[in-house]
């Protein structure tokens, strides 16, 4: 099979590798579509993300969908020919976090495209069968691949305990912010306010469900929030930009007794927060790390047709064009949101 391998930072090589064989309780999947994620770009550009360092050649890509071509021994709920989406993190199933349902916190997780584990920018992958979910006939491979980042938005909305009719603020309209807006709409949010500094992303936010948008280049976030909420503040604020300034705005925007959710990873490990505001308004502050138990719900929600998350796809590439995709994502951020790569052609 063909695979795109990151040999070292900014060096991708198209290689011929052996097609893997599925073991017990595993399936072999022909990869149809893979989204290019910000983490892939970080590994390509810098060779590391925090403590995760690329120390040997690796295949990137973890937002994937495809078709089952072979089932290993013991697989009874999946069969050849099924169209599927892939949850990329294989957890241990035994630790306290796996046992209490928060398996996203498992310290022994083997996550696609996170060193040292290979990802899906290749023609075939083997996955544990419990991480593979059939998709409806009407769902495209593109939407199925985007279930992975949509799951982050879904988990963020869940962590914020967003209720029907409530007001939610989302700071940062990159792919995860847009997915969070879509998740908020599907959860029945009454008002969805999107914040960014690019008009193109704010226009896309409206397509994803935002009822109001704020461009921080031209408007005061604090003033607009007070206007849109009649000086009450928002019920839930979700920060997806990884920006210290956005964190400050998040805390200021939340109403008394409201909730704040931090999704974005800042370049700095520490960011200042207004502790007095958190205490005085008794704000619940929660973090988000990936997701858990989201895939069945995501498939159900995205099958409703109420939101089309494919609208954020700005570019499409064949496998051999992967380096072009990475470079454009780095140098043309204004015109790119989500790129889709097709290992077996379109």
What would you say this structure looks like, in words?
- This is L-iditol 2-dehydrogenase.
- Pfam families: ADH_N, ADH_zinc_N.
- It comes from Domibacillus enclensis.
- This protein is an alpha/beta fold.
- The chain has 2 domains: 2-139 and 303-342, Quinone Oxidoreductase, Chain A, domain 1; 152-287, 3-Layer(aba) Sandwich (Rossmann fold), CATH 3.40.50.720.
- 28% of the residues lie in helices and 28% in strands.
- The chain has helices at 38-46, 96-99, 141-159, 175-186, 199-208, 221-228, 244-253, 275-280, 295-302, 322-331, and strands spanning 2-8, 11-16, 26-36, 48-49, 52-53, 63-71, 83-86, 89-90, 110-111, 124-128, 132-134, 167-171, 191-196, 212-215, 234-239, 254-262, 284-287, 313-318, 338-342.
- Helix 10 links the parallel strand 18 (313-318) and strand 19.
- The chain starts with a strand and ends with a strand.
Distance between the termini: 17 Å
Number of domains: 2
In the CATH scheme, the class of the largest domain would be Alpha Beta
CATH architecture of the largest domain: Alpha-Beta Complex
Q: Helix- and strand-based class?
A: alpha/beta
Shape category:
globular
Write the layout of secondary structure elements.
Layout: E1 2-8, E2 11-16, E3 26-36, H1 38-46, E4 48-49, E5 52-53, E6 63-71, E7 83-86, E8 89-90, H2 96-99, E9 110-111, E10 124-128, E11 132-134, H3 141-159, E12 167-171, H4 175-186, E13 191-196, H5 199-208, E14 212-215, H6 221-228, E15 234-239, H7 244-253, E16 254-262, H8 275-280, E17 284-287, H9 295-302, E18 313-318, H10 322-331, E19 338-342
Parallel strand pairs: 12-13, 12-15, 13-14, 15-16, 16-17, 18-19
Antiparallel strand pairs: 1-2, 3-6, 3-10, 3-19, 4-5, 6-7, 7-11, 8-9
